[in-house]
Amino acid sequence: MNRSYTGANLPTLRSHNAALVLDLLRTAGEAGISRLELAEGTGLTPQAVSKITARLRAEGLAAEAGRRPSTGGKPRTVLRLVPDAGYAVGLHLDRDELTGVLVDLAGTTVAVRRAPLDLGADAEVVLEAATRAVAALVLPPPGPDGPTTPGPERGLTLLGVGVAAPGPLDHGRGVLHRVTGFPQWDGFALRDVLSERLGLPVVVDKDTNAAALGLALRARPGGGSFAYLHLGTGLGSGLVLGGALYRGARTGAGEFGHQTLQLDGPPCSCGGRGCVEALCLAAVAGGDLAEAARVLGTGAANLVGLLDIDRVLLGGRVVAADEEVFVRGVEAVLADRARREGSGPAVPVAAVAGDGRAVADGAAQLVLAPVFGHADIAFPGAASGAGAAEGASGADGAAGGSGGPLGGFPAVI
Amino acid sequence: MNRSYTGANLPTLRSHNAALVLDLLRTAGEAGISRLELAEGTGLTPQAVSKITARLRAEGLAAEAGRRPSTGGKPRTVLRLVPDAGYAVGLHLDRDELTGVLVDLAGTTVAVRRAPLDLGADAEVVLEAATRAVAALVLPPPGPDGPTTPGPERGLTLLGVGVAAPGPLDHGRGVLHRVTGFPQWDGFALRDVLSERLGLPVVVDKDTNAAALGLALRARPGGGSFAYLHLGTGLGSGLVLGGALYRGARTGAGEFGHQTLQLDGPPCSCGGRGCVEALCLAAVAGGDLAEAARVLGTGAANLVGLLDIDRVLLGGRVVAADEEVFVRGVEAVLADRARREGSGPAVPVAAVAGDGRAVADGAAQLVLAPVFGHADIAFPGAASGAGAAEGASGADGAAGGSGGPLGGFPAVI
DNA sequence: CCACTTAAACAACGCTGTTGCCAAAGTGCA
DNA sequence: TGCACTTTGGCAACAGCGTTGTTTAAGTGG
């Protein structure tokens, strides 16, 4: 299984370009984009774009939507992504809560469902809760946000289910490891078991990775790198480098919490000393949020320096409770660093809005991202993507086939 | 200039596969590799490999070299890379020394040249020294390592010159920034100036990046991620993630030395406090190498945890002077960390051999790597690759055209 | 000596994006 | 009102890619 397989043939080429066009359609959103702009954006000839968009329209993934004002000649025809050509479910299995979302191809969350969850309970109980959540999200009429949205009717095309859980885990194989506090999950093949049960492709990833992926897809297209720092019961991070999610070979990347920030500092629950998490949580517990922000900022500054990233995003319950303090505190440390180096403006810091859903939304993007060619940074050694259960409700396989882009194929989704 | 241009057409496809095959030929080395093994390794059909290798042979990049023993049928024909089909010069502009190497397509260093250099001198002086080094490496008979090596005869195909210099600098544009201690270089367009002067493509990168790239190409093919930590007059690093060099958007990645390792610790020359570099160099100055290694190891552990890398490589003059102490010291810290986490064996640590040439060798690989499809992790925003001076001695452009792989095109090299 | 196996080239093919050409659909001036 | 002009985008022919089917080459083993 340790093969590279990066050779590319014509179907690969076709998928790559189709995914590229789909991604531009996606980022254009409601406004749409013309064929010539697609050609400009991809570097393909207008004629190639015409052919590709014709295929996409035939498959129901794209549609014409009005015209631009003329600039002296025939006006450009605007194309748009058809949002309900495909849906994905995102599940966030948190320690005490399950959040599920239904997201359409355009990235719009069309339904949300929350339920209490005990991640420490028996596997069967958790799986049953997940199954119920998926069923509830898919089956019923429109959803909580009313009939204004063109609610998915029965028989919608469900591309798969993305599951975000606390780490550590193996994204490639979809197996959980010893989730902190819940050792009974160690070695549980969540992806395969859930996929079998649902009859749908399932992708599993760390909660922080899912959140980062979701944020990456909402950010400006192409390039851009950022760190998502999540401060809740623990401190974790998700890394997006050059526009792609970086998981590392064993899905272990982003273990931000146990970075040593104070040599021989106070002991941490991990057994180490002076970890950011320990320092930060201690400050929070002591009520000194400014100090917590300073510690977090120092860790963030290390990240910014090491990875040369473009921005820092903050999230998690603790941050959400006092956004301003944390954003300003981290900003201050980064500004100080930028001043010392004199290398341009400081890296911007922002809090993630609507945090309660960020992880679940991102989990859905685990399924949707490959359709748009958003692969992770390739690790040929590790298996990647959703292995099990093809089809089931995959319709005519329109979007299913146009999965991986060239270079670093994820396994079929 | 901020375009993506990741659309792929047939020539792109061809280049990608050709580069892939070339890379397998390169890693096979003297032993060579058969067509069927190439097919196995690329995922292409044997017939496609036959066509591609036929082209490569026609271009003089590959040649048949013997046969394998038969396994009951026609024996496999072994193919090998033709090493002298192309050469690259690598220059390491260090603060007090210039090291130049001539490297062939197979990655063998066929000539070395060292000369004292004052990087603080006038630009003209430094450029003249660089020009002389290139001329000396290319013109004379075989070189210092005697007539055993099939020395490049006059008229060799020189693909370009890679230059490694202390950072910070902009790899994409080939412009130096304020090199620590030598502010006069700030804004100097080294790539374009040198390219104009030599009539050759030139690529500029940080010394640590070049070293890491060189090491990456020598490592096991595909995948694999590691950090190269360089402890000399300062402390820097080069990151290879998923087999590809990671520079960040502004070539700033790898600023390892000024990671805060001790909150509110002793002041550092950078203006910050508790930086790894300050702590490490202080320990070295105090003669406590074990402590220096422990500090370095703690910083390395942060890297390993954050990026989930596979191994740590150490280099630089200070390390070279006491390899054992540093390797063991860093190993100890990483082993301790692995034991706490219980997640498999500790990450291996090793010192880089022949350190005096590691950077220069890597600089040459800045030119050679794209031929084999080794692109960096893409940052569509930043211009990349060697822009200037095409041709000159580019021969029939055989290798020149087969530059970028699919996905994240570097500008033509 | 011949049957069998394996490797690799030859030939025909389907499909890709590209090029050349032309119809469609506007604007703007006479 | 009409005609020239501009711009968009489809149609058709094409070159080039990897693939498939077949044949030839070059060995082993009974």
Protein topology:
Two copies of one chain form a homodimer.
Chain A (H helix, E strand, L loop, with lengths): L9 H19 L4 E2 H8 L3 H13 L3 E6 L9 E5 L5 E7 L3 E8 L4 E8 L6 H16 L19 E8 L3 E2 L4 E2 L13 H9 L3 E5 H12 L7 E6 L3 E7 L2 E3 L29 H10 L3 H19 L3 E5 L1 H5 L1 H19 L7 E3 L3 H14 L29 H4 L12
Parallel strand pairs in A: 4-7, 7-10, 11-14, 14-15
Antiparallel strand pairs in A: 1-3, 2-3, 4-5, 5-6, 8-9, 11-12, 12-13
Helix pairs in contact in A: 1-3, 2-3, 6-11, 7-8, 8-10
The structure holds a DNA duplex (30 and 30 nucleotides).
Structural features, described:
Chain A is α/β, with parallel strands linked by helices. Chain A has 3 domains: 10-81, Arc Repressor Mutant, subunit A (Orthogonal Bundle), CATH 1.10.10; 86-212 and 358-377, ATPase, nucleotide binding domain (Nucleotidyltransferase, domain 5), CATH 3.30.420.40; 222-356, Nucleotidyltransferase, domain 5. Chain A is built from 12 helices and 15 strands. The first copy, chain A, has a 5-stranded mixed sheet with strand order 6-5-4-7-10. In chain A, strands 13-12-11-14-15 form a 5-stranded mixed sheet, with helices on both faces. In chain A, strands 1-3-2 form a 3-stranded antiparallel sheet. In chain A, helix 7 runs antiparallel to helix 8 and helix 8 (289-307) crosses helix 10. Chain A is globular, with a radius of gyration of 22 Å. Residues 142-153 and 381-413 of chain A have low confidence and may be disordered. Chains A and B meet through helix 1, helix 2, strand 12, helix 8 and helix 10 of A and helix 1, helix 2, strand 12, helix 8 and helix 10 of B. Chain B binds a DNA duplex (30 and 30 nucleotides) through helix 1 and helix 3.
